[in-house]
Design goal:
It is built from 21 helices and 32 strands. It is an alpha/beta fold.
């Protein structure tokens, strides 16, 4: 029976029978409410994840809007200053047994800024090329430059000669800051730098080379007093904060412009993934890399947490580091670096505090094996380009996906997948001249609408390459889209999957390799007439390894030793073609279609042309046999 309390005519409270309710009906209602969460989860399994992500994204979006409206503009340097004031003695960097607090890094950056201001005459708006390895000096050098209002160009410390000079030249820098270990690489291009009146400084010690100046003493003697805000008074949300180099889809590396707004947006990725100030982040990727610098370093500044920095990734030391420093968050790029295949299986594989991995590029089978071996680590894959205006995040930990295309995502980053002609390497257009959207589940070229709010800033010093990434008249006359150069697919649940890369780039060892750059280096070899460079898949490995189909000059034979010497002298390890195929049959365009070459791979049982393999132990290319092929596939030959 169901009663209610009412006020009677005399003002006295009375119990009144409203209506008799069947007990079974009442029980059914209560049971329905109890099972409601389970029903919602069954019908909408990712609703909770979507809501959490959307709420976080809105909060971070509002923060950017607040920073943009502040006068003066609230930059990452200002955010770092507040983090120092909040936790001055909290460790920011763990490095090779030493710790550096927020205050330590702040003071060192002040010293660097004051020294460079005095010795190099740096001022707001100047561009400075930073050629440093993964070391704490990288952090305070960038902060010091940012405090002066300077733009830092983060050079890849693996590049040499022509590529290094190109990267330096396209950013328009007049000052180069390098570390002692990279002095040899700088000396190779020193004559060209002198012609451009470039000042070169070694940050670690004094230099024995006449035209390279040591600045260590000046930094040591410089004041660590804070620098006045007026030195960067003109920095605003649209100002360029730094240049990060990307191979993109064609040509030599390009200097992607990262604005102050994009710097903030990238730093929020840790927060979007649920990282807090109590977490310890592991940075073993190069700091010149978007993931290492933007997600890792600036993300830690934004969160106010600590990070462990390594000079380079070490599979054998990875989990030992995690245990030693109580690391809780890693970049999932470490899975690419063969965390499973290289590290010897141990009894303490699950003895760690890692709870979260952030990054991209992990195959589904590797992801599953990683989790089964190392424990229930929440993996958040993401997709994005340094210069792009669209990004995806798989905040649900759905194995294999690089993102989720929710309602907010579609509104914030207007995008589409369009049909792409692999043979012609261009978008497919209909009779009206417009691009054709793919059907659900079908791979397509990702394009993102370019707007004032979500622009494509482009590359420094090359308007032509910037224009190549702009796609016009996509769905209607006059519209403008960013061409990602990547094929993605979106399934029926709105999960996004990476399919392939188009154009003249492939990815190996976590790095983009520009085929035209490698072809240019191979053309320096006397015996080679033409080189067609591409990437091929190898069982058990992420990405594609470099291979080249070459034609020889008339009457010449393949020079195994000289070719090895050239590629090792001028190309970083990840960009060197490990397989070479001597073409003896040509197409009408004087070389085989790249699509066909990629399909045939490096299997001697399929390819009748002579094949060679780069053997660094004997410093030459050696004939590649079926036995060699079997050893590569089995993992006996390490790549």
């Amino acid at each position: 029976l169901f009663y209610t309390v009412v006020t009677g005519p005399s003002g006295i409270l009375e119990m009144v029978l409203v209506a008799p309710i069947n007990m079974y009906v009442w029980f059914t209602l209560l049971a329905g409410l109890a099972f409601l969460p389970a029903i919602v989860k069954t019908l909408f399994p990712y609703l909770f994840h979507d809501c959490v992500y959307i709420l976080r994204a809105i909060c971070f979006g509002l923060r950017i809007e607040i920073y943009k409206r502040k006068t003066p503009f609230y930059s990452m340097v200002d955010g770092f200053g507040d983090a120092v004031r909040k936790n001055p003695h909290k460790t920011l960097i763990h490095f090779e047994g030493k710790t550096y607090s927020y205050l330590d890094v702040d003071r060192e950056s002040n010293k660097v800024a004051n020294a460079l201001r005095k010795v190099a005459g740096l001022k707001e708006g100047d561009t400075v090329a930073v050629f440093l390895g993964n070391e704490p000096a990288f952090a305070w050098t960038w902060l010091g430059l940012a405090k002066l209002g300077c733009v830092a160009a983060l050079l890849n410390f693996n590049i040499r000669s022509k590529s290094l000079l190109h990267c330096f030249s396209c950013c328009g820098a007049k000052v180069l800051i390098a570390c002692e270990e990279l002095c040899g690489a700088v000396e190779e291009i020193l004559p060209a730098l002198k012609e451009k009146s470039v000042s070169v400084y070694i940050i670690n010690n004094d230099s024995s080379t006449e035209d390279i100046k040591g600045i260590r003493q000046a930094i040591t003697q410089a004041s660590d007093d804070p620098l006045p805000r007026s030195l960067r008074a003109n920095v605003n949300v649209r100002s360029t904060a730094l240049y990060i180099y990307t191979s993109g889809t064609t040509g030599l590396p390009k200097a992607a412009m990262v604005t102050q707004e994009r710097l903030w947006a990238a730093s929020f990725f840790q927060g979007l993934c649920g990282v807090t100030s109590e977490d310890v982040f592991y940075i073993n990727l190069p700091l010149y890399h978007s993931a290492g610098f933007l997600i890792g370093f600036t993300g830690c500044i934004e969160r106010g947490n600590s990070f462990v920095l390594r000079r380079k990734f070490s599979a054998s030391q990875f989990w030992d580091d995690c245990r030693k420093y109580n690391i809780t968050v890693i970049l999932s790029f470490v899975i690419i670096y063969a965390t499973i295949t290289i590290i010897i299986q141990r009894n303490n594989d699950r003895d760690h505090k890692v709870r979260l991995a952030i990054g991209n590029g992990v195959r589904e089978e590797v992801w599953n094996e990683f989790l089964s071996r190392f424990g229930n680590i929440y993996v958040m894959e993401l997709y994005g380009a340094t210069e792009g205006n669209v990004v995806f995040l798989n905040y649900t930990s759905k194995v294999g996906a690089v993102g989720r295309d929710n309602i907010l995502q579609k509104h914030i980053f207007p995008h589409a997948l369009i049909k792409f002609d692999i043979e012609k390497e261009e978008p497919l257009r209909n009779a009206a001249g417009f691009c054709v959207p793919v059907t659900p589940g079908e791979p397509g070229l990702l394009v993102a609408r370019i707007t004032t709010k979500y622009p494509f800033v482009g590359y420094a010093g090359n308007k032509q390459l910037t224009e190549k990434k702009r796609l016009r008249d996509v769905f209607e006359k006059g519209d403008l889209y960013f061409n990602s150069g990547d094929l993605l697919r979106i399934d029926h649940e709105n999960f996004v999957y990476f399919h392939d890369r188009v154009g003249d780039t492939f990815r190996w060892k976590g790095e983009n390799v520009a085929t035209t750059e490698v072809s240019g280096i191979l053309s320096m070899v006397d015996c080679i007439e033409e080189a067609n460079v591409y990437g091929v898949t190898v069982k058990g490995h992420e990405g594609r390894i470099g291979m080249a189909a070459i034609t020889l000059k008339e009457g010449r034979v393949f020079d195994c030793v000289n070719t090895c010497s050239v590629v090792t002298d001028y190309l970083p390890v990840y960009a060197r073609p490990r397989f070479i195929r001597i073409q003896v049959r040509f197409t009408g365009t004087f070389k085989m279609k790249k699509v066909k070459l990629v399909e045939e791979g490096f299997n001697p049982a399929i390819i009748q042309d002579p094949l060679y393999f780069l053997d660094l132990t004997v410093k030459k290319y050696i004939p590649f046999t079926q036995e060699n092929y079997n050893s590569v596939i089995s993992g006996e030959i390490k790549l």
